[in-house]
Amino acid sequence: MLVYALLTSVGINFALCITFFTLYSYLRKKPGYYNVYAPRMLAEGIRNRFKVEHLLPAPGWMRKAWKATEDELLESSGLDAVVFMRIIIFCLRVFCVAGIIGLFVLLPVNCLGNQLENIDFQNITNDSLDVFSISNVNNGSNRLWFHFGAVYVLTIFICYLLYHEFLYVSAKRVAYFYMSKPQPHQFTILVRSIPVSHGSSVSASLESFFREYHPSTFLSYVVVCRTSRIRNLMNEMHNVYGRITHLRTERNRQNVKKGCFCGLLELLRRNDHHLHHYETRLGTLEEHLRLERLETAEKTEVRAAFVSFKSRYGAATALSMQQSTNPTEWVGEQAPEPHDVYWPKFSFTFMGRWISRLVVIFSCIIFTILFLIPVVIVQGLTNLDQIEAWFPFLDGILSVKAVSEIVTGYLPSLILLLFIKMVPPIMWLFSSVQGYISYSQIMRSASEKVVWFTVWNVFFANVLSGSALNNISIFLDPKSLPYKLGVLVPTQGSFFIAYVVTSGWTSASIELLQLFPLISSLIKKHCSSKFEVPDLRYHRDIPRFLLLGLLGITYFFLAPLILPFLLIYFCMAYIVYRNQILNVYAPRFETAGRFWPIVHNCMIFSLLLMHAIAVGIFTAKKLPVAASLVFPLPAATLIFNSYCRKRFLPNFHGYSAESLIKKDREDMKDHYRMNNFYGKMTTSYEDPAFLPMRYSTTSDTGSSTYPLLSPEFFHV
User: What is the pTM of this model?
Assistant: First the structure.
């Protein structure tokens, strides 16, 4: 890629960022868009009065986001939001140090080489970006030792940061646990594979077992039932009620115009007819729901239950011990928060979960293979000769400089970004059918899938398809993989620089503007719809941070020109996501920072990949001594990773006996509060499918009122 093509991509994305930031600074002040830009404020009942200065865009939101402390984020959105921001801070620290080394040491060294060509500073836009990379350093040059030293320095610095962050997040988890109020999931475990004797029931077997073997700590239980049919009825009722609400709104609007437009009378009669039809349908569904609930409660118990204990230590003890001589019976796992339970697939049997995981693995493989098609197309667009070979009729158009700049500099990364947008929801779908019992587990599983999918399909697939499409046979020998990576990876530096600009800068500005929610809000502006505060999609954003982090680490010493673009992106992300956490997103669940091990693992992988590429590039550059001296780095990194896993990872799987007992003793000082808590906990894990449902029975301003549901089905 030539410099002018990169400058075209930077210019387009910079213009989009300025446009989106300006639009946000203006629209966020208008009350009509509070549901998009301040839904948390609306949910809390806070509304600002309109002022004249609301007509002008202002950057005051940046100052507010910058000044917000970590304690404020912790109080408003929990520890997961704090850890999410720590990922951005971690990347900023890494690329600040990497940027200083890369821009002030490695970049001048690369420019002084003449392996490719001498740089024409008078007409620099016509130079290839490769002249700024390690590819331009002469083979066997002693200047390559600067790159060798840079690899060592960055590895040591990243390992230091990883240790510091693991220690920090681990300590925050313990502190967050101590400051929390008693929560049902802290006292509850999920028990599966409950053995039931002939003529008995799951409830009887469960109570008999825990009364006998945990008599002093056992408190209560809730048996899980299969409720898929009930949920289908409830979803249909929600849809029907949505239609009723919409028709009532339309009728009220038409009643206002009735005096002026007599032609609306026929439309009003038709509206009332549809309204009566849907209300009748809702009554029928209500009766079906009542009968289905009675039948389900009696006949569809699953051999699984939420079992609650009188203390956290009692629950942890029951969880850590094998309950039966048969390890496949009475299998326990930590219960999620009640509102975090994912009920639709919760009643999967053991065989169902096992089969679904096999199906998901197979589906992920097929999806990964199919995704290679757009990757190959994208790589073809980066090469004008390849495009002209594929589409000879475009020869005249591509000869125009502006068109060729856009096609080779901006279009490939944009197409890849659009395809990548499809990955998080698909991976969420795959994870949701694997039998996980909570949204947080699904989110973590989807995050891991997206991370490794993007690492393979954005990094490796682009490197392989872009550099070795005609020489694929050289990858049949895995022993020489480091050398091959060292040869191939530098050639894709220019593409990934453009990808960072498009994927990073534009994604951050789109996130700030909330482009898709904004469009959806404009479409639904005149329709009655349920208002919901969105939650932060960790499986969408964390993988993007980690992928860009991997690109920055691997290309740090190969093509240091990527570093300033990464720094700009993470600075934007720091401000944008702090603003979004304070104003837009509300926490749906709380894992107390359990996403951090995913970050740690990906950073370790990035370091190992950088080491493998370093061995290959120094070998290709005829500096075998440097290549040999790199080998201690991956060994030391793996030892460091093993130490971190043994030192910190157990703290992310559970809490120590010391912490649990200390917290139990503190809570037991207030007997009255704990007795009230025990009373509420006995019903905390009731399936929402058995809870009553409430719909508004009042029409807005109409002449008549239509009862929708009986009082006994009111929803709490």
Answer: 0.85
